[in-house]
Amino acid sequence: MAALKVSIVGASGYTGGELLRLLLGHPKVEVLQVTSERLTGKFVHKTHPNLRKRTDLKFSSAADLQKCDIVFLCLPHGSAMDRIEEFTGLADRIIDLSADFRLRNPDDYIQWYDRPHSNPAFLEKFVYGVCELHREEMKTAHYVSGAGCNATTTILGLYPLYKADVVEPHSTVVEVKVGSSEGGNSASAGSHHPERSGAVRSFMPAGHRHIAEMLQELAFGRKINIHFSATSIEMVRGVLATSHVFLKEDLQEKDIWKIYRSAYGGEPFIRIVKERDGIFRFPEPKILTGSNYCDIGFQKDERSNRLVVISALDNLMKGAAGQAVQALNIMFGFEETTGLEFPGLHPV
Amino acid sequence: MAALKVSIVGASGYTGGELLRLLLGHPKVEVLQVTSERLTGKFVHKTHPNLRKRTDLKFSSAADLQKCDIVFLCLPHGSAMDRIEEFTGLADRIIDLSADFRLRNPDDYIQWYDRPHSNPAFLEKFVYGVCELHREEMKTAHYVSGAGCNATTTILGLYPLYKADVVEPHSTVVEVKVGSSEGGNSASAGSHHPERSGAVRSFMPAGHRHIAEMLQELAFGRKINIHFSATSIEMVRGVLATSHVFLKEDLQEKDIWKIYRSAYGGEPFIRIVKERDGIFRFPEPKILTGSNYCDIGFQKDERSNRLVVISALDNLMKGAAGQAVQALNIMFGFEETTGLEFPGLHPV
Amino acid sequence: MAALKVSIVGASGYTGGELLRLLLGHPKVEVLQVTSERLTGKFVHKTHPNLRKRTDLKFSSAADLQKCDIVFLCLPHGSAMDRIEEFTGLADRIIDLSADFRLRNPDDYIQWYDRPHSNPAFLEKFVYGVCELHREEMKTAHYVSGAGCNATTTILGLYPLYKADVVEPHSTVVEVKVGSSEGGNSASAGSHHPERSGAVRSFMPAGHRHIAEMLQELAFGRKINIHFSATSIEMVRGVLATSHVFLKEDLQEKDIWKIYRSAYGGEPFIRIVKERDGIFRFPEPKILTGSNYCDIGFQKDERSNRLVVISALDNLMKGAAGQAVQALNIMFGFEETTGLEFPGLHPV
Amino acid sequence: MAALKVSIVGASGYTGGELLRLLLGHPKVEVLQVTSERLTGKFVHKTHPNLRKRTDLKFSSAADLQKCDIVFLCLPHGSAMDRIEEFTGLADRIIDLSADFRLRNPDDYIQWYDRPHSNPAFLEKFVYGVCELHREEMKTAHYVSGAGCNATTTILGLYPLYKADVVEPHSTVVEVKVGSSEGGNSASAGSHHPERSGAVRSFMPAGHRHIAEMLQELAFGRKINIHFSATSIEMVRGVLATSHVFLKEDLQEKDIWKIYRSAYGGEPFIRIVKERDGIFRFPEPKILTGSNYCDIGFQKDERSNRLVVISALDNLMKGAAGQAVQALNIMFGFEETTGLEFPGLHPV
């Protein structure tokens, strides 16, 4: 089979760069064009220095995009919805990594993004990008919307429990610990190293937009609530979600094991991590750096009905670019792990 | 007045070293002896290198302790209770920094520390060491028990709300993010730098012993529960507690302000940190390094009755040695901030 | 004696903030005004969050400065020389923390700063601010010029050897390892946390401007060369200089000890750190954070005539604000350590 | 061709684990056995948590090793030389990653390792493992000795200059900045996170054993000296060498370019990094994490004959396991980059 021709719109940022790295190493894919209006004509390895000696690609302007098999959109939130019909003309398939097509209900954009959606007709055409939840739809989908990194971490941790309906619907509390790359590649006073280094910054105690995705994916027709907070810590890549759920009935850890095994037993990128001893008893984002795994563990509080679920991933991989390549593999019938084989490092 | 003669039993550890640093700089105090059985005869500045050129003290054996005005105990948990009568003979006043006298109910030791207390008669003689809650008792106390660092952080954050009885009693969820110095100065496989660096380690998702202190101090005669988890992050000093409480009635942020001001308005070491903009909108442990402040902030979730309370301190200062010196100042009628003037650094 | 009235021009940056912290805690000093044109009217603790509850000062405009006893200038390089006569009218004594009056030879400004000095007549009125080298001149000086942080670290490490004339004059190689706060408080692409975190960045392999100060202070009438490089590492505060000098004659380590003791025996802020065992055998900047010490150690290479000298300090303290307060203490006859008592922390 | 059967002796450490990760992903290789006496019978992914779901291998005892095509030795220094004949019986080819067969002259072991070599006859049978210098010999070699990580970094940076004989032979000064994984996986007081975090530790100002390798590989029949120091910094993986060489004649940067291009033009794992602007103007170890590249840059000091050479690599990859796999590829005629395709991450 001829290599799939792919282009990336908005390839100068962290997500675009990571996607480019993965696609350059993907054996079924040829990277046709990558765009950046600001850097048109410049070598991509100047911006993404890990790609030195790997590619001689230069950034193109989006105005010069050629037809191809699939386009990845790595634009700022709000851009993709305004320009979607420009891109549907270029390729039969699109994977959008912004927030613009994640939510099915147009009203959610008003509520969570403070603006009406500019092209709501497209919302139902997009499949939400968490592969473990929407694999079957992806197989025939033309459009996939990459999920938010914090949403992916939280949803993958909680999905089996919510699907099995064993959780009190209104009392779940989630706190994610996130790294600085989540904020993108634009410098600001808050990202200045002397200020950001060693920070434990409660940047979003309430009101995080990714909550909308969690509610959409975990409700299963019920009314639920997720009490979500996000804290930045000293880390560049990585998300760890600590989710406190309250069990409706008296389940033991072995029952929880069964629920997770049943949901994720065959999943190539989910690992249940729960050891009795050793250093890495629970998921840790650092050993996931560069990998596409989402590691999930849990512990039952013996003094209450609380179950603490711990889920971790690399926000630029399973939380963005890796997830998108996994979706591509599903959409085109490739082995799902193609191009995503890097297991992560230890120590690191 | 002649300087107060103080000795420290168990001064080779991190808490003992920090206490020694503070007491050497305290204008009303003379450090008489500091003990370490392992390091007897060695200069303390070899172990605590920041004290080079500050003191020529050498470690003594506890067997050689002389009478003095007050003894600080920085022994491993379980030692102080076994040897307490040895120390009451040495000094009229004792501040114990272990867990051995924190809990009033002897049964709590069986439940949380898996062993009966070896000298329960002393439990009622000790005042629990959070100065903001027990200042009046401390003024006449002979024995004070330093509070746990995670307990102090959580209790100071939540105390005004529990005292005002505005919180649902069974649904509070707390997660502390802690640094590596909390684990003390003994190297282990888990504290080995390549493993511990950059970690986000769910070392105690449930069952942390400091919960017992929180329940004791926050109950106010009610039956309450605190769903507590502890996560180690990349940090040496510092604790930040994110506490999710659910309000019984519809309070606004200005009502919460009033509750905190009423509880802490005159407190020298509590700062309410809640800014509309800027980098440091909420408490951050890094700017508290070396200081005795506990910074507290909060944010109301507009979509629910959840209030997120954020509290931070330096675990070796306000969470241990600084708190102990503050208690000493109260016990002896000194200005409460004496020897605790260092404000913390920025940037750091 | 009435408190000394001091003002700080340019107090919104890191050096100005650190100076303000020190002066607020200095018992002989009253901080009259601190200026920032951009932040006029704003509380200083909004910019320097460690000073919350420590001061209610607001930033003033330099146009509103009142007469006072001493003015500290913390302006960008190039400003102080242009405006120096504006400030000499305000106070009888000035300590300038920029590079504008560090070099005695006006030609050096052309060679190292690529511009002629705009007020060369003032160069000879300023005393170079390394107190250990110029204490006697400072006692009667009206104007002191704070030394560069990298220059201070290197000069203090090498001064005894150059003074004793035991070093080959043209072969010394120095590499400083520096933290991110050296670059000031302005965010840039290079200071963006995901890029700067964990960096080992050769930001100035040759041509660093601080070399001019080293040559000036270490020459003692000889012609010398210093081969200097600067590397940024993962650190916020701190400088460590590794200096490789080649001995002219066959000196043993005990001879080197004598040379250092003779030069620094009575110095309050110099510590010779050279242990046979333990973790802190040589100077380490991290335990100097917030302190005014410069720690110096050395090791002779047994296979050659190389002597490796290691010197470390906190760039914002002994390398800037602390050095300036030490100079103030000398100028006004205060105890030299006044306001500079903080010993640094361990662990940290 | 049937897959190559390989075993790793001593696979519980960091180098052994990294080698295992690479070999598991190598398409021409089958990992037969990995040994650890302490962990015999345990799953390797318990020790190397990044390999969860990648392998079900368990550790074997060396006593149970079967015959195979090639054995990698990752034993502590001193073991391989004592047991070498045990391993030559198991496989026709050996790659030893310890220091035991790096030096050709047996006397060097006495001088640098303080003990005579126990099997000097084998020294001449081993090829020194820096592929760029010894590729031709490796093609027919049976035994290869992996080079030291600091030696590899320094040698690769300096080799073109020494080979071209443009460097003063006795005045080169090198300082490496290294991460904590260089010290291996055994916890110690010095590797305890509160002590090691943020350290700038002059752990080997002189006398480092890797100097022997540098002298051996860079001499080209001349008498040379390398003045070498090693400093630990806040980093887990990575080495950066700053080498100060003094040019014998007046070369310009374009001449230096030619020398490097001539030496490394066709090398798959060497990149010359020297940009006029941008953040990554010179080599940085962090973007090499997990990759097999050695990045090299340089800058001429315009005020002297000094050339500053900057070289960087991942100590566990190009400095150990990656280099060994590259050697395996050469020995067996595989494409040299096989199994070493990971380019490194950005940001990280």
Word description of this protein:
The structure is a homotetramer of 348-residue chains. Chain A is α/β, with parallel strands linked by helices. Chain A is 28% helix and 22% strand. Chain A folds into two domains: 4-127, NAD(P)-binding Rossmann-like Domain (Rossmann fold), CATH 3.40.50; 150-315, Dihydrodipicolinate Reductase, domain 2. Chain A has helices at 14-24, 44-47, 79-88, 106-113, 131-140, 149-163, 193-196, 210-218, 253-264, 317-331; strands at residues 4-9, 29-35, 59-60, 68-73, 91-96, 126-128, 143-145, 172-178, 201-204, 226-232, 239-246, 270-272, 294-300, 306-313. In chain A, strands 3-2-1-4-5-7-6 form a seven-stranded parallel beta sheet, with helices on both faces. The first copy, chain A, has ten helices and 14 strands. Chains in contact: A-B, A-C, A-D, B-C, B-D, C-D.
So what's the overall shape of chain A? globular
Q: Assign the CATH superfamily of the largest domain in chain A.
A: Dihydrodipicolinate Reductase, domain 2
Gyration radius of chain A (Cα, Å) is 20 Å
Helix fraction of chain A, binned, reads: 25-40%
> What structural class do the secondary elements of chain A suggest?
alpha/beta
Number of discrete domains of chain A = 2
Query: How many beta-strand elements of chain A?
Result: 14
Distance between the termini of chain A: 38 Å
| Main CATH class of the largest domain in chain A | Alpha Beta
Strand content of chain A: 15-25%
From N to C, what is the helix and strand string of chain A? EHEHEEHEHEHEHEHEHEEHEEEH
Main β-sheet, spatial strand arrangement of chain A? 3-2-1-4-5-7-6
Low-confidence stretches of chain A: none
